[in-house]
Here is the input.
Amino acid sequence: MNSVAGAPDEPGTLSPGAGLPRSVLFVCGMNSVRSPMAELLARQALASTVYVASAGVRAGERDPFVDAVLAEQGLSLNDRQPRTLDDLEDDYFDLIITLSPEAHHTALELTRSMAVDVEYWPTADPTTATGTRDQILAAYRDVRQRLSERIARRFGPQTGAE
Here is the structure.
């Protein structure tokens, strides 16, 4: 069953913490900014029993601004490189969270005959930011913060690695 949650500032269709999934996949366009950031933030926030992964619709390259804003919070992607949906070892997830329109349409198409929940969390693409380095970093920080807040709101107070 595919279900779609509302806009980023609306609560999801489930109350926070309800029905904690066993596995979550974050998907965006190229798995270089939004989805790897969401994956790392969710791994930090959720119990270690929840499998968390991310992928892109298309192949992308690692983004140094992502590394910079994650390092500000003591986080690191280490040697992780962007991957596509085709690169995933497992293709079954209890919950797929899409972060861009392209990712959402692809996820709905791929899961139309599967019993999996798909939620759409529209998330700005900070790579479109222009200006000084500080202005660009501010756009990436905003995405990091919004994802962190949305993860906490969606999955509730049981967050925290075990």
Summary: The first strand starts at residue 23 and ends at 28. Residues 133-155 form the longest helix (23 residues). Residues 1-17 have pLDDT under 50 and may be disordered.
